[in-house]
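[step 3/7] fold_predict: job queued, chain A
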Amino acid sequence: MKLEQFVDPYLGKPWGDLGARILSSGNRVSVTLGYPAAGARQNLEKQLAEFIGSPDLELELRFAPPRGRGFPQIKHIVAVASGKGGVGKSTTAVNLALALSAEGAKVGLLDADIYGPSQGMMLGVAEGRRPEVRSEKELLPIKAHGLQTMSMSFMITDKTPMVWRGPMVSGALQQLLTQTAWEDLDYLIVDMPPGTGDIQLTLSQKVPVSGAVIVTTPQDIALLDARKGIEMFRKVEISVLGIVENMSLFTCPHCGSTSHLFGEHGGARIAEEFDVPLLTALPLAMSIREQADGGNPTVAADPDGEIAGLYRDAARHLAARLWQSDQAARPVISISDD
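[step 4/7] structure written:
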């Protein structure tokens, strides 16, 4: 079938080689991919029509999540990390989670920044709201904007400092992850604390993480720390799915001129250096900060906007990489006459 030779726009390989399921009847085509891509349907429909020379093609796009490495109730666990603070990691994590959900996946978000949890505020969860307890040992995740969420901020007040040593923090992370009654998730996005400390080691050693996304800015000092983050994940054999560059470009709202305030193409350079994709380069925009601070992140607040489109494209790309890694990990079975 010619459609099996169509090259996936994110992975650069034919759908047939990747294991996509394709059915066609007349001008109607049904394609089942291993990553959610609801927002790409129209573009894929046009590309497929050109590929097979059928201008009246109608595409039905479906999503069949790969099994992954996660727990029974979680197919894939994805860490969103940064080498240093202040690069927009938490904002990226919540918007990637919302983007995956918008694309058609079942998504959870775990705030693993025990010392500085912020996802409760970003998701608009009312202060003082606590998770319900089931069977005296499981916490029910709080649902916000269609996500299943859990955070230390649901257990404490905004004014409570977490004066804990490393082992206590690591234990708290494991409890939040394993004692939350997650409901059949395709992806659990984990918002990591900045750096390469105890929580990162705990996650890598005791949790079946499928992959990591590194967040940076183009600034040289941020790139230096991003390299450390990439090397850490490589040492613990966790695949780096790609780089997200924040604050790449500022456009003046008054005159329209653009400036690279923190440097230019830094994310692309580090992505090339480590042979991983640059998932997206996001602008320095006040709306991203205002929407997250207001409890209504960009992908939820302006789902059809340009910036939400960048997050959704990045989400499709990272999920496609997980699909590819899942296919590569499958054993090859051969039958011989010996």
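[step 5/7] annotate
Residues 306-329 form the longest helix (24 residues).
The radius of gyration is 21 Å.
exit 0
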